[in-house]
Amino acid sequence: MKKAIVLVLAVFVSVPLAFSAIITNTNQSTQYLRLLARNASTDIDAVYYNPAGLTKLADGFHLAVHNETISQDKTVINSFPFLNNSTYVGTVRIPIYPNIYAVYKQGPLAFSLGFGPNGGGGTADFKTGLPSFEWLYSAYPWIFTHIYGIPTSQYSLNMQFKGDSTYYGFQANVSYAFADYVSAAIGIRYITADNEYTGSITNIMFNFGGGATMYPGTLLNPGFGDMKVNTSQKGTGFTPILGLNLTPVEGLNIGMHYEFKTKLELTNTVATDDNSGIFPDGQKTRADIPAILALGVSYAVIPQLRAHLSYTLTFDKDAVWGVEDATGAVADVDNRALLINSNCYDLAFGLEYDVADFLTLSAGYMLTSYNLKPEYQSDLSFALGANTFGFGAQLHVIPKLTIDLAALIVNYKDAQQTLDYGIFGPAVEKYQETTWAFGIGVGYRF
Fold first, then answer.
1. Which of 312, 268, 259 is nearest to 287 (CA)?
2. CA–CA separation, 19 vs 164, rounded Å?
3. Superfamily for 2-445?
4. Which residues sit opposite 311 in a β-bridge?
5. CA-to-CA distance for 293 and 183, rounded, in angstroms?
6. Using an 8 Å Cβ cutoff, are 263 and 285 in contact?
7. CB-based burial, 7-40: b 16+ in 10 Å, e otherwise
8. Cα–Cα 20 to 30 A to 63, which of 151, 167, 369, 430?
9. What predicted TM-score, i.e. pTM, was given to this entire model?
């Protein structure tokens, strides 16, 4: 019994630790929130989206500071009949999500620096746990009654899980214009990954005898004692970046860049591991950040109206996730990578219009497509296709100062799968998500 309970906790912790790196954040500026198609940017956020396009900036020093406020709810609905509640909600609240860009441009040469949360999912707080933790406990009243002959009809417990995953990126680029119509860039991004996870399962109780009184599960088996985990994983990696920008005719700009796969090795540091024994302190895990190919086109339909198109392909299938052995080889590759049918992509379109010299309005749409086997999804780590809508404005306060304002909402496509609970039969588990964000950015050319 204790082994089975420990297995539940092992699943609870190991999945997000191994898979947090698959989350690649492309929302790296307020301009992105209001347009969603930035891969051909020639503004200061091109430090991230199109480094070669920075040669289109005016000569001088450029500085921009952006922040997003993000809210996300992750909902899991499980039809397993013995659960006290079928719906579990995890909340993600990120009040500060900063991006900082600096560029020095002189003639054909531009040097740039960037900072932002390039990966991770912020802090997810599941205050009542998740069905993958709870279903086993919910089944024990049936087990006690039908197998052990102890009439039992109710259970209760306190369960919580909180995960904080942030990958900060520090980027540097050098861009050079060989001619007015072609420029190239080379860059490097230094990634610092920090995953913090806490969880507990406490006060496990049953109404042995079938009455109204609840009794501690430890009266029957010590395996029902409290379990607590507090652990972190930290690591660093480097992402080489190559970029190219083309302006074949006036008004048409084409941007492209490729980010190589980031080999990322995370190391366990265990603060608390009560009654589970699943966290080897110092154990190393590979959690690569996938390579990215980004292509973009922008076109001035008329001087006041510009259209933007972006395509971003993430090479998830080529990344490596799993526990390393003593030699550094990945001995236990997570087989969920085999459940990715094809790589994820984003396809985005945006329009912006200069209403007046001091005001530009914009709107954008993005399709996010995943091609995953149903078995890929779990309550701990699910990926949903989405339709994203953004809109906003840029204020030209004075000739050298701009302020960007934006809002974004994501409409996710629900997913589900049928889980096999052995002698208890199948149950359907559904996955839902909602996200909205607001952004403000300030840019200045010195």
1. 268
2. 13
3. Outer membrane protein transport protein (OMPP1/FadL/TodX) (2.40.160.60)
4. 295, 347
5. 18
6. no
7. ebbebbbbbbbbbbbbbbbbbbbbbbbbbbbbbb
8. 167
9. 0.88
